[in-house]
Write a structure and sequence with these properties.
Largest sheet: none
Strand content: under 5%
Structural class: mainly alpha
Order of helices and strands: HHHHHH
Radius of gyration: 16 Å
Number of domains: 1
Helix content: over 70%
Length: about 140
Amino acid sequence: MDDLRGRGAVRAVAVVAAVLTVAAGLGVRAAVGGEVAKYAGDALYTVLVYALAVTAAPGLRPVAAGAWAAGLSWAVELFQLTGVPEELAHRSALARLVLGSTFNPPDLLWYLVGAVLAALVHAGAGRAGPAGRRV
């Protein structure tokens, strides 16, 4: 039963992290703009993927969740080379937000930055759990 409660707590924190990540992305875009907002958005995109992965699978360890989030972000970026996301982006704002539109090599680096930062925060949160238990 403790395991189920622990996983529920992890899910709750991951959902809050996802909401805060979206808010941070919108805030950066509104406050800064330009290249800073673009690359911060790339990193935050992967942080969001990370949070959603942990929401779906709360037992994921930080390294596994980070690898999964970076891998999925890279897959989406590389998918842009096909031209399909660009075509979908013309038809749907949601597709544009999720899939982007055009391939940009520096994005790959910023996805890794987001995955590493999310994994570090996740690992730190696990160490700070109550009574030495991983959160």
